[in-house]
Design brief:
Elements (H helix, E strand, L loop, with lengths): L4 H44 L34
Protein name: Sec-independent protein translocase protein TatA
InterPro entries: TatA/B/E, TatA/E
GO biological process, one term: protein transport by the Tat complex
């Protein structure tokens, strides 16, 4: 069983008595301004969200040319014991 119409009416009357008609009106106006500001902000963000151009990265050739062998590192020498 949810709240009845009488209970809702009593809560609304108490709300108006506590805050007054002027404060409720100002509050609703501020809420409307916030919603309008949010909508314009979302519309502005949609225009700037165009896809950026991809970057072109140039790579240097790292594979050896035909006929040349890659440089070799010298292996460390083992010391003879004894």
């Amino acid at each position: 069983m949810g709240p009845s119409w009488w209970q809702i009416l009593i809560v609304l009357v108490l709300f108006v008595l506590l805050f007054g008609r002027g404060k409720i009106s100002d509050l609703m106006g501020d809420v409307a301004k916030g919603i309008k500001s949010f909508k314009t902000g979302m519309a502005d963000d949609g225009d700037d969200a165009a896809e950026p151009e991809p970057k072109v990265i140039e790579h240097e050739r790292t594979t050896p040319k035909a006929g040349k062998s890659p440089p070799r590192a010298k292996a460390p020498r083992k010391q003879k014991s004894g």
